[in-house]
Every structure is written in structure tokens, then in C-alpha cells.
TrEMBL record:
Its EC number is 4.3.3.6, 3.5.1.2. Coiled coil: none annotated. This is Pyridoxal 5'-phosphate synthase subunit PdxT. It comes from the Bacteria. Belongs to the glutaminase PdxT/SNO family. One of its GO terms (biological process) is pyridoxine metabolic process. Gene3D superfamilies: 3.40.50.880.
Length: 197
């Protein structure tokens, strides 16, 4: 059984857990404190409000531990706010949160919640069929470092990237009913022996 944690301080936690529980041989757990990080095979940083999540990480003294575990190789996937948490640089902000992924992100790049939208895109690394992408007050990657693999762009904006054990998406796969990105992340842990039909 593979165990994937979902950071459960704020945001779309249950939606990710529901997706993980839909996959055979996978269990999802809510991560709220340091002890919850023990024994997990991967971690999802969900969408929500990046500033609020960043403050809660500091308040619960999780920031140094998360940085250490991800640097040591723990697979991590940040969706929307999670992408912002992982970024080394945030446009027009003097500081970052975890500062691990060599990307510069533009927060709220697509405007307010009223400007949220859904589109479809082919992301060959993840699926042979077009995937539904849901953007809600989404960021995008304004600049990606040389070691960052760009997985997807929408309207010439980078919206999905990968660097080593880190994956980040500007959109919300957990809101689509499509499990391809969750399958991709589970496979990325490198520990699972599950074959998805």
C-alpha cells in the first residue's frame, strides 16, 4: 500500500484525498502536524490561499521539516497555491515560502475568482488523451530554470512543471474527476508496484 499525504492546513484537501482513495493500492492521509509526515511516500500541497498556508506552515513549525524532507527526495506535488509554495521566486514579493523549485511564479495571474476558467490540453508526459484543466485564481510560471522540465503551457503561459522529485501545476486536477495527474504523481514516487488499467 502506498501512502500519499495531503497537507491539510487549508484548501482543497478532501478533493485530493478522494482522488487518492479512488486509486487501487493507494491511501491518502491528511497531514496537519510534523508526526503525520512520517511514513508517507509522497506529499501533495493543495490549492488554497498560498499566503495563509505559508503562515500556517510557520506557525506549526512545519517549514524547516518540509524543506528538509523534500530536499532529501520526498516526492511532492503542488497544485495552484502549492506551486507558489514550492517556488524560489514570487513576482513582486520579497520572499518565498519553501523556495525549493527553480521557478518564478506570478500569483493570481488570471485575475479574480470570477476569471476562473476550464480548458483542455494534451500533456503527453501524463496522458495520451487531452486532459481537463481547471484554473481558479491561478498562478503561472513566468520563468523556469534550466533544470525544470515544462510539462504544459496554455496560451503561451507555463502551467505545469517538474524538477527532480517535485511536480507543480497551476490548475486543479482534483476538481475534474480525471485521475491521470494523480496516477502520474503516484507513479513518480518510484516506490509503487501498481499497474493502472
Amino acid at each position: 500500500m502506498l501512502t500519499i499525504g495531503v497537507l491539510a492546513l487549508q484548501g482543497a484537501v478532501q478533493e485530493h484525498l478522494d482522488c487518492l482513495h479512488s486509486l487501487p493500492g493507494v491511501t491518502g492521509i491528511a497531514v496537519k502536524k510534523a508526526a503525520d509526515l512520517n511514513g508517507i511516500d509522497g506529499l501533495i500541497l493543495p490549492g488554497g490561499e498560498s499566503t495563509a498556508i505559508g503562515k500556517l506552515l510557520q506557525e506549526f513549525q512545519l517549514t524547516p521539516l518540509l524543506i528538509a524532507k523534500i530536499r532529501a527526495g520526498l516526492p511532492v506535488w503542488g497544485t495552484c497555491a502549492g506551486m507558489i509554495l514550492l517556488a524560489k521566486t514570487i513576482v513582486d514579493q520579497p520572499s518565498c515560502h519553501l523556495g525549493l523549485m527553480d521557478i518564478t511564479v506570478q500569483r493570481n495571474a488570471y485575475g479574480s475568482q470570477l476569471n476562473s476558467f476550464t480548458t483542455n490540453a494534451l500533456i503527453p508526459a501524463v496522458s495520451s488523451a487531452p486532459l481537463p484543466l481547471v484554473f481558479i485564481r491561478a498562478p503561472y510560471v513566468a520563468k523556469a530554470g534550466p533544470n525544470v522540465k515544462v510539462l504544459a503551457t496554455v496560451a503561451d503561459k507555463i502551467v505545469a512543471v517538474e524538477q527532480g522529485n517535485m511536480l507543480a501545476t497551476a490548475f486543479h486536477p482534483e476538481l475534474t474527476g480525471n485521475l491521470e495527474f494523480h496516477k502520474y504523481f503516484v507513479a513518480k514516487t518510484g516506490k509503487q508496484k501498481i499497474t493502472f488499467s
